[in-house]
Amino acid sequence: MTFPVVGMVGGGQLARMTHEAGIPLGIKFKLLSDTPQDSAAQVAGEVVIGDYRDLDTLRAFARGCDVITFDHEHVPTEHLRALEADGIPVRPGPDALVHAQDKGVMRAKLDEIGAPSPRHRIVADTADAVAFADEVGGFPIILKTVRGGYDGKGVWFVRTAEDARDPFLAGVPVLAEEKVDFVRELAANIVRSPHGQAVAYPVVESRQVDGVCDTVIAPAPDLDEELGGQAQELALRIAKELGVVGHLAVELFQTTDGRILVNELAMRPHNSGHWTMDGAITSQFANHVRAVLDLPLGDPRPRAPWTVMCNVLGGDYPDMYQGYLHCMARDPQLKIHMYGKDVKPGRKVGHVNTYGDDLDETLERARHAADYLRGTIVE
Amino acid sequence: MTFPVVGMVGGGQLARMTHEAGIPLGIKFKLLSDTPQDSAAQVAGEVVIGDYRDLDTLRAFARGCDVITFDHEHVPTEHLRALEADGIPVRPGPDALVHAQDKGVMRAKLDEIGAPSPRHRIVADTADAVAFADEVGGFPIILKTVRGGYDGKGVWFVRTAEDARDPFLAGVPVLAEEKVDFVRELAANIVRSPHGQAVAYPVVESRQVDGVCDTVIAPAPDLDEELGGQAQELALRIAKELGVVGHLAVELFQTTDGRILVNELAMRPHNSGHWTMDGAITSQFANHVRAVLDLPLGDPRPRAPWTVMCNVLGGDYPDMYQGYLHCMARDPQLKIHMYGKDVKPGRKVGHVNTYGDDLDETLERARHAADYLRGTIVE
User: Fold this and answer.
1) In this protein, which residues make up the domain named ATP-grasp (chains A, B) (predicted)?
2) What is the dihedral of CA A7, A9, A13, A18, to 10 degrees?
3) B226 a known binding residue?
4) Is A107 part of any domain?
5) B43 vs A42: CB contact, 8 Å cut-off?
6) Is residue A97 part of a domain?
7) Between chains, do A320 and B43 touch, taking CB under 8 Å as contact?
8) Are residues B167 and B85 in the same domain?
9) What is the pLDDT of residue B344?
10) Of the residues A175, A183, A355, B269, which has the fewest C-beta atoms closer than 10 A?
11) What residues 38-97 of chain B have any CB closer than 8 A to a CB of chain A?
12) Which residue in the set A28, A321, A333 is minimally distant from B2, CB to CB?
């Protein structure tokens, strides 16, 4: 048999769920993980423990892999180029991935291809950030380090010149963005393969709490059909222009004046696509694997009128397994996805999916289960 | 966290798919496998290589497991009792499992509880088999070794006294059964937990080719509602009377005169339940895990009007991956499940699932994909 070896860098939950999705395909999955306790390392068959920042480690890992893909976007761009020079297919490749690694490069490229962004520019220091605020009509503004941020880290909501000091302490270039007046956040998830086939999932609504994704509703309720189509087309165009291979999440603001603006890009399976595991004909993870192997992509359409995903965040209760009894007995249709991670307050340790014909009921079921597992509610 | 450790004995595809189903539950899965190349051993995180027939190996494996369950029914009954005596929960337990291990014990128990079987008795030798044939109206009859058979192995279709010699060569007790006039084979799959909760999947039609399961249609087409209910109730009753924990498959004959008779019992996830992976709200594998952990069971109802499973058997083509291009491009809704097994003629190396609103179309899609992967058809 000539089933290929997919090497995945990073042992987080995205790798865990990618491995899960790869099992039915009969492919061989090889993981590069920081520790044997990492989420994916607990459940994968072939695990190499090592530091993805070390080129020799990456090279040794890549040997015998037919393709390399990623759980996160933190592998240095120059290492990815070195792997490519070694003849290893890297998907997404460094020329695409840099746009998800560096928010400055991302904004410049989006401007170049005419994709709508919040007003923005790189700012040199606090005084320059204040000047930018003046240019966009005053504070508040958003400051972001161009590299290294995720889940609200590396992002500052800046109301005063005083607030505009911390972002410069790390010595990393800082991107300033206007504070957009938005009614909600959306995400357009697509998957693209090397030969150019692409599929678009329905656009979803993503609700954040404290900068962390909390709830995703698929499809986004009451979304104007034309605006939804625009969002899908935008994501497909970004993927094509940037040469993305695999899953691309385009996080969007739906503005009060009815436009969509690109907030962030992620070139890997994404939290806003976790609903697809139970709610779509083909999950984002299965399609990501198919894309990086240049296999024909699976049908991205939903299987139910509504699917809701709620993240399970760590709370005060360390023992989430205890909550299974209540949650499973209350809702035999509930889908629990836990990541094998130790509970720490605010940490994403799992998610739940529900689907059904009635949005309110579907939402309530997911909300209840996530809150119960976290320990926020007790019945 | 107190997530439990589920130990599974046997590294075949049932263990592989059980591991896959266990990942979202965040449980720890530990495998006892004959070799590192076994289907499940390729993809599981914690694998112990050893011989399940050796009690010391089993005992060492069971240490640290919260429960032991099985990929197959071949672990000696006395070893299971020893594990139980050590205080390890064994699910299903030896008192239940013996009915799936020994067809003689199974038939005696079914008689005792009034479950309908083909006419049968243990026969001592060829002459006794001929006598049995006379008792049931003449040849053909079926002879089965009471232990060790599966997928048509250990089963003889006996047309003459001459045919009735081989079954006795192994020196194992032989069960004789009448050849039932049946219109088709059905399977009633249920899952039962230690505290007595049980769920019943819709009764399916199972089509065999050369004694090996080939196609499963869920639900069984044109099945009389009352007969379907009888089959589900029968399976639930057998599970209760035999003390089964986990998945129980009751293979049935639907006779020409409109009765159902028990053909075989399997106390583990079963080929006739593979359709549930894509066709039911909760798969047989997920429910088996929930049952052995005494968690509330998941909803067994179908997600689509029709789901069809076709086994992919090994053919002349060793490279099944090549067929993915055609199959995935032709049918973006196709669900492929490959087991990582080397292709040998007639060996079950995977299965495909399709679902849809129209039975003929759903059947054709699954049939085409299975035949194409096997290499029976080329387009």
Assistant:
1) 107-294
2) -20
3) no
4) no
5) no
6) no
7) no
8) no
9) 92
10) A183
11) 41-45, 47
12) A321
Q: Is the peptide bond before A89 cis (omega within 30 degrees of 0)?
A: no
A141 and A216 together in one domain:
no
Q: What span, in angstroms and rounded, lies between the C-alpha atoms of B261 and B129?
A: 21
Q: Residue B149: its pLDDT value, please?
A: 65
| Residue whose entry in the numeric block shows the structure tokens 């390729």 | B42
Cα(A176)–Cα(A174) distance, integer angstroms: 7
Residue B4 sits at the chain A interface (C-beta within 8 Å): yes
Could you count the other beta carbons within 10 Å of the beta carbon of residue A304?
A: 17
**What pLDDT sits at residue A150?**
61
Q: How large is the average pLDDT for residues A21-49? A: 97
| A320/B contact by beta carbon, under 8 A | yes
Q: Under an 8 A CB cutoff, do B338 and A45 touch? A: no
Among partner residues A16, A295, A338, which is closest to B25 by beta-carbon distance?
A338
Contacts A–B by Cβ distance under 8 A: 133
State pLDDT tens for residues A272-286. 999 999 999 999 999
Is residue B361 marked as binding?
no
Alpha helices in chain A (DSSP H): 13-22, 55-62, 77-85, 94-101, 103-113, 126-135, 225-242, 276-279, 284-292, 323-330, 359-374
Check whether the bond before A194 is cis (ω within 30° of 0): no
For B78-133, how does the pLDDT look when each residue is reduced to its tens digit (9 = 90+)? 999 999 999 999 999 999 999 999 999 999 999 999 999 999 999 999 999 999 99
Question: Hey, of B321, B335, B339, B347, which one would you mutate to test binding to chain A, going by the most A CBs within 10 A of its CB?
Answer: B321
pLDDT score, position A149: 65
- Structurally, chain A folds into a number of domains equal to 3
Chain mean pLDDT for chain B: 96
Whether the CB of B281 is below 8 Å from some CB of chain A: the reply is yes
CA proximity to A71, closest of A347, A350, A279, A271 = A271
Tokens of B164: 């009735």
pLDDT for res A352: 98
Is the Cβ–Cβ distance between B254 and B184 less than 8 Å?
Answer: yes
| Residue given tokens 């119960």 in the structure block | A372
B153 labelled binding-site residue: no
Our measurement of the distance from residue B124's CA atom to the centroid of its chain's CA atoms, rounded to an integer in Å, reads: 29
pLDDT of residue A10: 98
State pLDDT tens for residues A202-216. Answer: 999 999 998 889 999
ipTM of this complex? 0.95
Q: Residues in chain A, how many?
A: 379
The dihedrals phi and psi of B43, each to the nearest 5 degrees, come to -120, -5
Reply yes or no on whether the pLDDT at B1 is more than 60: no
Do A329 and A353 lie in one domain? The reply is: yes
pLDDT over 70 (residue B152): no
Domain membership of residue B146 as a residue range: 119-178
User: What is the domain-level CATH number for residue A313?
Assistant: 3.30.470.20
Closest-approach residue (CA) in chain B for A29: B43
In this structure, the answer to whether residues B214 and B289 fall within a common structural domain is yes
Distance from CA of B50 to the nearest CA of A (A): 17
